[in-house]
Amino acid sequence: MNNKKITQYAIYAVAVLCAALINEHIIKYVKKHVDQEGYLLVLIDMAIVVLIFAPAFALVTKYTKKLSNVYLRTSKKFSASNKNGTLLGFIIAIFILFILYASLRHNLNVVDDLKALIR
Questions:
Q1: CA-closest candidate to residue 93, choices 111, 67, 59
Q2: Residue 95 to residue 46: CA distance in whole angstroms
């Protein structure tokens, strides 16, 4: 596989993961501030997704793709080989996103767990 395809797949993967993480953060914020429970909360969540989050998700995806592209291009500059730079940048981005996903979506503290593992 050539470097251009690898870069496109890496940018797409990072952009989708970033957009999903931002979407999850917004949904948690809304749930915290909505005082309804049960089926009414389900209807409110569905309305919010359709009216607000669908366009917002498209906008977030657009900008995270641009940011991911800049990030991966910068990581290529710091490596001797374009393919190695892309791979290194992608691995670092996935590691950072893994920590954010573990923290935000699963309430796990990866940093403390890594510190305990190293000791």
A1: 67
A2: 31
| 70: nearest Cα among 2, 23, 15, 30 | 15
Q: Output the pTM of the full model.
A: 0.59
Are 72 and 89 a contacting pair, CB within 8 Å?
yes
Q: Rounded to an integer, what distance in angstroms lies between the CA atom of residue 12 and that of residue 26?
A: 21
| Single-letter residue type at 14 | V
Query: Do the beta carbons of residue 55 and residue 45 sit within 8 Å?
Result: no
pLDDT digit string (tens) for the chain, length 119 residues:
666 677 767 777 777 777 778 777 777 777 777 666 677 777 777 776 676 667 766 766 677 677 767 776 776 676 666 667 777 878 888 888 888 888 877 888 888 888 888 88
